[in-house]
Amino acid sequence: MEQFLRPAPKTLARSAYAVEVNPWTTKGDIEAALLFRGTIVSSYGFIETTLGEVCVRASRIEKFAALRSSFP
Predict the structure, then answer these.
(1) What are the CA-CA distances from residue 8 to residues 12, 20, 28, 57 (Å)?
(2) Which residues fall within 8 angstroms of residue 17, CB to CB, at 6 or more apart?
């Protein structure tokens, strides 16, 4: 009967998104790094949206109307 039993897995499957913790890193440092990472990622979207709005508004000004006839 023992020949039909599967061996127990040596390690459990880890998520690809799991945070790998260095033993010398404090929990506060990890939380701060994740917070800053989220802030940086979200700022790219904010900047892109703001630049898009500036382009649309500038296209209505006479000086910039001749540069481009449509939004890129």
Answers:
(1) 10, 24, 35, 64
(2) none
Contacts 24+ apart (CB under 8 A), 26-33: none
pLDDT in tens, 19-29: 666 778 787 88
Rounded Cα distance between 57 and 60, Å, is 6
Q: Compute CA 68 distance to the chain's CA centroid, rounded to the nearest angstrom.
A: 32
39 vs 41: CA distance, rounded Å: 6
Residue extents of the structural domains in the chain: 25-66
pTM, two decimals, is 0.47
